[in-house]
Design brief:
335 residues, alpha+beta, Ribosomal Protein S5, domain 2, 2 domains, four-stranded antiparallel sheet, 10 helices, 42% helix
Length: 335
């Protein structure tokens, strides 16, 4: 089996051990959410400041079969979300056992601890799944390729979210920003060195509801899907070029334009719009909702000297927490 080159990969010592540890991190969609499942490109960024660690060990109890596992999730995620997560992770563990031929007999105890708030469009479920995959690999002393990791994470994601685009599964293990288009993935060039401020609205996003709302809108209006996808494609491609060429004002404008596209489709909320407006009023170059919609987070492209004012205004408009992602740091990991 091919050796994994992931930064979140398991220990070089491949002997089975008493406790396996795996890690992953959050992600944010820059542009392209929703449209990516219809064939449009999407730009996604790793958010290494928000990390997840999973620990797996054999409990000593006899197992009832593949997927027999006890989960402990740090924090207090909403009960339906915790149920979805554990169902997806149980499926993942069963698939891991089948794919890698590991011993299914021992009952497993898995603890997942991380700083990614669930249901905010930051890839919490995918990051947890990736961390668990690498914890299991570490526990069993096995190598997993990036392709195998992706397939296993998608197993859990499809349980949690239905059909998944794969953006989250890729980006929560990436070290650099990524371009997604029709199943192909490549690293992005970065020529902008400003800051991205992520603001948590404190309201759970509703990805499944947003997907259905968008689909219903497409069905009601002839040509709506084609217009949405074409507009999203133009904005995302413009943002990709601006990011690479070092044109932050243009990049910011494309962010705001994409927010307007999602808002027109009914995927924003008053709280989210208030956060976008506050960021722009405080001097951000652009701002938008990020992720599935109907709640979640806002991202704002901001010059370093304006970041303090932007963060203050975001909290004043209802943000419950904020994080700063320097594009310069991501650029150092990009091609």
């Amino acid at each position: 089996m091919t050796v994994s080159t992931s930064a979140e990969g398991v220990s070089e010592d491949r002997r089975p051990r008493s406790v396996g540890i795996g890690r992953a991190h959050a992600k944010a969609i820059l542009l392209g959410e929703h449209a990516v499942v219809y064939g449009a490109p999407a730009l996604a960024l790793p958010v290494p400041q928000l990390a997840v660690t999973a620990r797996a060990h054999r409990s000593g109890r006899e197992s009832d079969g593949p997927g027999d596992v006890s989960f402990t999730m740090a924090g207090s995620p909403p009960r339906p979300m915790a149920t979805q997560a554990s169902d997806g992770l149980r499926r993942l563990i069963a698939e891991f056992t089948a794919a890698l031929g590991t011993d299914a007999a021992p009952h497993l105890d898995v603890t997942v601890d991380g700083a990614i708030p669930p249901g905010r469009g930051l890839g919490s479920s995918a990051a947890c799944a990736r961390a668990v995959v690498h914890a299991l690999a570490d526990l069993h002393g096995r190598e997993v390729t990036e392709s195998e990791t992706f397939d296993l994470v998608q197993t859990a994601e499809n349980v949690a979210h239905g059909r998944s685009s794969g953006v989250d599964a890729r980006t929560v293990g990436a070290s650099a920003p990524l371009l997604f288009c029709r199943g192909e993935v490549q690293e992005l060039s970065i020529g902008c060195y400003d800051l991205l401020v992520i603001a948590d609205s404190g309201v759970l996003g509703r990805t499944k509801d947003a997907v259905e709302l968008l689909r219903e809108g497409f069905q009601r209006h002839d040509g709506a899907q084609e217009r949405f996808v074409q507009r999203a494609t133009r904005l995302t491609e413009g943002a990709r070029r601006a990011l690479a060429d070092g044109r932050p004002q243009e990049l910011g404008a494309r962010l705001t334009d994409y927010h307007d596209l999602l808002r027109a489709a009914g995927l924003s909320t008053r709280r989210i719009d208030a956060l976008v407006d506050a960021a722009l009023a405080a001097g951000s170059l652009g701002a938008k909702i990020t992720g599935g919609g109907l709640g979640g987070c806002v991202i704002a492209l901001t010059r370093e000297e304006q970041a303090g004012e932007v963060i203050q205004q975001l909290h004043g408009a209802g943000a419950v927490q904020t994080w700063v992602v320097p594009l310069r740091g991501l650029a150092e990991n990009a091609l």
